[in-house]
Amino acid sequence: MELMEEMQVTAIKPTDHTERITALDILRGFVLCGILLMNIIGFGLAGAYADPNVSGGATGLNLYAWMTTNLFFEGTMRAMFSMLFGVGTYILLERLDHRKAGMEAAEIFMRRMVWLLFFGLVHGYLLLWTGEILYDYAFMGFFVFVFRKLPPKKLILIALVLFTAGTLWSYFQYKSDIKLVENVAIVKQKEAASETLNKELKEAKGKWEEIEYHKSPEYVQDANENMRKGYFNVVAFLAPFNMVTDTLWLYRYDLWDILSMMLVGIALYKLKILNGHKPVRFYAIMVLVCYPIGLLVNYYEIKTIMNSSYSYLGFSKANITYDVGRVTMVFGHLGVIMLFTKTHILAGLKRSLAAVGKMALTNYIMHSLICMVLFTGVGFGLYGKLQRYELYYVVFAIWIFQLIISPIWLRYFAFGPLEWVWRKLSYRNNPPFKKRSQAI
Asked: Residue 256 in 3-state DSSP?
């Protein structure tokens, strides 16, 4: 009996590199690169992620950059990242179940999520990235644990319910925003006539002033000055933003945005779609059907915003169809990437992307470290000094660096440094770090 228990414990170890699924690693590499296309705006500009008029420029190349990213990438990279996290969690638990880990599997998983939550807090508060997502993934991971064994149809059904709930919330938010704008107009009339405001109008005035401030030149100047200060000043300046993303966003967005895509990812994996097992025809149909729908919806949203002169209501209205556009674009992207994995071209690029994907956690945190040095007062203090389109030169440089360094690292080491630490903390053992030299 003791021998059997010893053999069981020995079998419970991190996934070996020989067990990895190449298509998933390539997909993860694509997504890791793609997510920086959106995050770079948050790293380098104040208040410009959604509205190009706030800072960074809204004409010429800057406008085209905003339109392109919103047409093709807004929400899609985050969605695919969520899908892959769900799949990774499912594979981990399935392999532990296969190895008869029993309760140890649940303990490993819980430790894994708790440490991810901790990494997320460090990433957001101390590495200065308010758009960080590891903290959110840790919370949503507990739901994935509960639902992971459901058949694909039920997983997709739950995701559809979540999408619907999120869409309804956005719809009623739009109705509430209409009322807010109407009340603001009444406030202006009453103030012009020196009339007293009731409680509802006072609240509307206060909320509107806060909205307007975060789009004002005063806010941009204040953010630029604070982000160019020393490290601890930046930590203190960003702490309130991190508190909002770690509380409000959990129930306002994460259930409908993140958990839904995690469940979809597990369903697609079970259906043999994400691992590249479907024929070329299947993925080609995904591209031909999903891209037109996604592009039309996203174009409608962009025109809605621009036709409203980038108004508050314009953004609120466009948000109603957000999930329809981003999810269909995700399926289009998946089709293209899976077709790429099935071809025999650009083998070197595939290897590099797979290496980036294998080191996704390390490379994701690396984005923040590089951008902290580039944009804050910790380093060069370039925050607010580059136009929107110029930020993409930084993106391309980081892509090239990671595509080169990741395969070189994995030539000598079994895991990325943070992946190794996470495994060590999750399994409470010492997984091999350096690869054994092989005789030629």
From this structure: helix
Burial (CB count <10 Å: 0-12, 13-18, 19+), residue 232: exposed
- What is the number of other CB atoms lying within 10 angstroms of the CB of residue 439? 3
CA 244 to CA 150: how far, in whole Å? 33
HSE of 28 in the Cβ direction (CA atoms, 13 Å)?
A: 27
**CA 91-77-45 angle, 5° bins:** 135
DSSP code of 309?
T
The residue whose two tokens read 């993106």 is: 395
Instruction: Name residues whose C-beta falls within 8 Å of residue 208's C-beta, 6 or more positions apart in sequence.
Output: 180, 184, 187
Instruction: Check residue 153 and give left, alpha or beta (phi > 0: left; psi -120 to 50: alpha).
Output: alpha
CB 32 within 8 A of CB 363: yes
pLDDT tens per residue, range 181-207: 999 999 999 999 999 999 999 999 999
At 356-396, the pLDDT tens digits run: 999 999 999 999 999 999 999 999 999 999 999 999 999 99
Backbone angles phi, psi at 18, to 5 degrees: -75, -15
Residue 369: both structure tokens together: 């470290």
Give 434's strand partners.
413
Average pLDDT score over the chain:
92
Nearest to 75 by CA among 38, 122, 104: 38
CA gap 249, 113 in Å, rounded: 18
**Coil, strand, or helix at residue 45?**
coil
Structural tokens at position 292:
């037109």
Q: How far apart are CA 108 and CA 93, in angstroms?
A: 9
**Cβ proximity of 384 and 323 under 8 Å:** no
Nearest to 275 by CA among 326, 332, 341, 336: 341
Residue 361: phi, psi to the nearest 5? -65, -45
* φ, ψ of residue 274 in degrees (nearest 5): -75, -20
Coil vs helix vs strand at 271: coil
Q: At what angle do helices 322-342 and 22-44 cross, to 10 degrees?
A: 130
Q: Could you give the CA distance from residue 236 to residue 253 in angstroms, rounded to a whole number?
A: 25
Alpha-helical runs (H) found in 246-308: 248-249, 260-270, 280-307
Residue 385 near residue 45, CB atoms below 8 Å: no
Radius of gyration for the chain, computed over Cα atoms and rounded to the nearest angstrom = 23
Integer Cα distance of 398 and 389 in angstroms: 15
